[in-house]
Amino acid sequence: MSVTPSRRDLLKSAALAGPALLSAQAVAAPASGRPAKPAVKAVLAPNSIPLSALPGHFDVDPSIRNLEAGYWSVMPRVVAQAYARHTEEVNRSNSIFARNVLPGEACLANGSREAQVAIARQVGCAPEEIAVARSGSDALQLLIANYRGLKTGDAVIYCDLDYDATIGAMEWLGTHRGARVVRFAMPEPATTANILAAYDEVLKRNPDAKLLLVTQVSNRTGLVTPVREIVAMARARGVDTIVDAAHGIALLDFQLADLDADFVAWSVHKWTSAPLGTGAMYIRKSRLADIDIAYENHNLPADSINARIPPGTVNFAAMLTIPLAVDFHFAIGAAAKERHMRALRNRWVDAVRDLPNVTMAVPDDPARYCTITSFRLKGMDSDEKAKAVQQRLFEKYRILTVWRTGVAKGPVIRVTPGLYSTQADVDALAAALRAEHAMFV
């Protein structure tokens, strides 16, 4: 007698299944007997994509120079094609796939497990320390809201350069869990010494602090913080740290062990170039009990990290595409990728360095920046003026940047080349800034 697995069984198998590669073929023939459309899995060897060929792997609108890759990444063509195939496969198989009734590997349990394995391989940790989330924002909000170490009156700390969604979650700890919320401003210039001094001062000033939010790469300015040192500083005072690594994972060449953090989350749809709606949560295995399960998610064992993700239907096709996106990352090579993105950033920054009315919002220290770099024009002292700069660059030069607010020192224009960007793209920005740098003076 055949038995269809229950939702509870499905979720348990997704959490506990052993490692398995996704099949190179499409899912098995549907119940109607019609053969499934075959799908060929791309083979991407590590370090096989030369940097000179990288832009050719992406299909982008050639009429606009898109220097706003910080929102999410364009999927490379091979990943986009795989995502389309997986979408078709999941749509055709429906709950036949999701209920794990198909033989072999063509089922949700193996697909979920393979996504965890791929992400763990990318960041250098155990698969059971990784949960796939709907986005980096979701994963970070869950870590913050479900942190169990707070009691009424404990201080929680964040800074002005943290991400809006995480700031909202930290403020929620104040309004809903009785925490005392402390906000401080990142110093400018944000040298390594100044950054560490600012965190040291705020921790000393708040000896009742229990939780600290640290952003590895600021979405506002592009500042790269010395995470490992900050984590150690907080830990020495009995303060736990949650790290937002959304713009660090798959862009900076590092592993999670280099941060030495217990709780980290990020967006897989950013620099890993996976489909939209994919994120990841890391909890060090020894600290799992310090993050509560999500919304009483008893569909999964309490000792599974996946119980920290709310139950519900996700974009299965996006999840299935994650392993190939990770393969593409390794096909470029982490060190080569970071080197390439730094070179694009340095090319336009160096080209406008002599302009008296252009100021970078990050220090001139390679340890404190990577790809994202924000600038200010002299006289750009309001959100309205920052919006005007973004509009001028787009309407006159067809260059997309984005203005960012929330920085204590004033609004900025964020520039984020993508993996698809060319030298011509950043040269066009430099030329536009040379023409427009005095627009407010």
UniProtKB/TrEMBL annotation:
Protein name as catalogued: Selenocysteine lyase/Cysteine desulfurase
SUPFAM superfamilies: PLP-dependent transferases (SSF53383)
Domain named Aminotransferase class V: residues: 88-429
Keyword flag Endoplasmic reticulum: no
Organism of provenance: Rhizorhabdus histidinilytica
One GO MF term attached to the UniProt entry: lyase activity
Segment forming the signal sequence: 1-28
Keyword Lyase set for record: yes
Keywords in alphabetical order: Lyase, Pyridoxal phosphate, Signal
Alphabetized InterPro entries for the sequence: Aminotrans_V_dom, PyrdxlP-dep_Trfase, PyrdxlP-dep_Trfase_major, PyrdxlP-dep_Trfase_small, TAT_signal
Name of a matching Pfam family: Aminotran_5
